[in-house]
Amino acid sequence: MAISLYDISVSTYLQVLGGVAGVLAKGAEYAAEHDLDLPEIVETRLQPDMLPFRFQIISVAHHSLGAIEGIRQGVFQPPPSMPDLDYAGLQGLVDNAITKLKDTPREEIDALEGSSVTFRMGKVEIPFTTENFIMSFSLPNLLFHATTTYDILRMAGVPLGKLDFLGEMRVGA
Predict the structure, then answer these.
(1) What residues does 118 pair with on adjacent strands?
(2) Is 172 within a domain?
(3) pLDDT tens for each residue of 76-93
């Protein structure tokens, strides 16, 4: 059986977003129990030259729901701005992406197979097929930002494990 464009994109995005939503929920619960400063977490960076936690979550939403919007339009660009969201607002951003992706019709996404998507950033333009955009650009970026989200919360003491990161796996025969 061949794997569909929907399976490599929307299904995978939903799994990663579900994991991130769970990690964020554990972070909020831990913060309430251990007096962890969530506004400080929102601005935490793993290293001074890296972008903050807030950017990681915004990027998770952008490289999932935003990627689907990009393949629909044939153009994917960085978000126009980085909204100043608090922790609860970031959780809402992830929840919104999950809701909208769950409403995305399989047939619509599968019909985009073989289409063109251009990544634009300033004067840089990189042409992709839809499949290559998802597999070599969108998914690696999504996983990078989801991992960085996990790492920042783990560094802050939140008791997370690999199963938290994985989210709901697609199991069965």
Answers:
(1) 75, 127
(2) no
(3) 999 877 788 999 999 999
Please answer whether residues 67 and 134 qualify as being in contact, where contact means their C-beta atoms are separated by less than 8 angstroms: yes
Q: Which CATH number covers residue 101?
A: 1.20.120.450
pLDDT at 173 over 70: no
What pLDDT does residue 79 have?
85
Q: What's the domain range around 121?
A: 5-166
Rounded to whole angstroms, the Cα distance separating 10 from 17 reads 10
Tokens coding 76 = 């994917």
The pLDDT of 10-31, averaged and rounded, is 97
Residues 6+ positions from 18 with CB-CB distance below 8 Å: 98, 167, 168
Q: For residues 159, 169, 91 and 6, what is the CA-based torsion angle, rounded to 10 degrees? A: 150
- For the stretch 87-90, contacts whose Cβ atoms lie closer than 8 Å and that sit 24 or more positions apart, written own/partner, are 87/24, 87/27, 87/28, 87/31, 87/38, 87/39, 87/41, 87/42, 88/28, 90/24, 90/42, 90/53, 90/54, 90/57, 90/58
